[in-house]
Amino acid sequence: MWIGERWKHVIYGLDKLPALLDIPTDKEYTDYLAAVWDENANSFIEGHEQIRGSFIEETEQAYEYNNSSLNPLRRTGFYATLINSDVDDAMGVMFDWLFYSVTSSTGESFVLPSEWEIGNNPALYFDSNRSALYVSTFLGIWRVSADGKSEKLTSDEYDGRHYSWHDEAAYIHESGWSGLFWVTHMTLSPDRRYIVYQSNRDCYNERNANTSIWRIDLETDEEQLILEGNAVNTINGFVTDKLALIDGRFLLDVSNGEIIPITLPDTPNRSLIDTGFGYIVCDSYKEEDAGLSSLNIFRVEPTTGTLTEVFAEIGVFRGFRFSPSGRFAHAEYGTDPNRGAETLMLFNFEKMSTQLLENVLGEVHQKLNGDIIRAQWLTDNAMLLQVISNVESKGVSNTWLAQW
Fold first, then answer.
1. Rounded Cα gap, residues 396 and 184, in angstroms
2. Could you tell me if 372 and 332 are in contact, meaning their C-beta atoms sit under 8 angstroms apart?
3. Radius of gyration for the alpha carbons in the chain, expressed in angstroms and rounded
4. I want to staple 342 with a disulfide (CB 3.0 to 4.6 A). Which of 39, 85, 261, 334 is the partner?
């Protein structure tokens, strides 16, 4: 089913059903900027807030997907002011974000960002258990609730020091090297119990800028250091509800700090693509393979860290996403490096098999008449597809709802 030119960002949370938020087209966004920006003054024009509000209202509709249809969501806009600290508050340094309080067809309240905010900061996590949205910026992590309230979950103090954007003690190291206190790589556990993130707050005196890993227990909002500073501490993602993959080297039990070593195959040019539902997904390539790569999926034994390869596919791959239940996944796929990805390869973790999307959709696939450049799961048997037409389209894409 064709549903327009605008691509839609899929958000999970409404009664475990997905919500969708329109993304303005490139032309709409270009026209908007031309209307609010004064190039001569290099600043926004007076009254730009009203134009912005109208632009968002017209182009960023929200929907819920239910019973194979898209239904408009009732929404009320509000701004949450994210302040880094009392020092910044006194100096007037603050960041206003636009959010929506929405109500589903069953009466459930939820909070959504505007697409404006999704575009400016992708570090957003939705918590259907608490009707809240977690937002991460360079300055910290906030929880924004459907009632319009916002609260900062990360502390501005550590080891007797008070950190803020404009507090020089926060970013002048004792060694004389200039650095800055930061928070990054916020990740929400699949069961919505923990947030983990990277920070240099306990390493700010070290010129090598080591990174430590911290945890917030969302049942108590308690913040705790769980992995001390190291130059290669990087959160790759959660493999299970409690186990996070760190720098591709080991699993970290975020509930107690226990480390479980793992060993990924030593393949050339390897990169980690995704984690989740007990799996680790990697991509690798050889220089002589002329643009083709290998997509490998490993099942993780959580108590020992033992890896078992369950898929090894060769082709041109772009992106990888699990379905909401984790029973399926997809990757944009092609066979010709000169054309890139053209369709989708679907992975079935129950049957341990793969299938191309055209074989699943049958005759319906012919209606797309183009190359699939992006896809998002709605349910285990429904997806949004962004398609560039094979006919002269001047770069215009179309969004389709595919169901099977």
1. 34
2. yes
3. 23
4. 334
| Average pLDDT value over all residues in the chain | 82
CA–CA distance, 153 with 127 (Å, rounded to integer): 14
| Residue 157 tokens, joined | 């103090």
Size (the chain), residues: 404
Q: Burial-class residue 281 by CB neighbours within 10 Å (0-12, 13-18, 19+).
A: buried
Interval 256-288: pLDDT, tens:
999 999 999 888 899 999 999 999 999 999 888
Kindly give, in sequence order, each residue whose CB lies less than 8 Å from that of residue 256, ignoring residues fewer than 6 positions away. Answer: none
Q: Which residues pair with 354 in a beta bridge?
A: 347
Measured between alpha carbons, how far is 77 from 353 in angstroms, rounded to an integer? 44
Q: What are the structure tokens assigned to 268, written together?
A: 């050339």
The answer to whether the beta carbons of residues 257 and 227 sit under 8 Å apart is yes
Q: Determine the pLDDT at residue 170.
A: 44
Instruction: Mark 111-146 as b/e (b = at least 16 C-beta within 10 Å).
Output: bbbbbbbbeeeebbbbbbeebbbbbbbebbbbbbbb
pTM higher than the cut 0.70: yes
**Angstrom distance (rounded) from CA 61 to CA 71:** 10
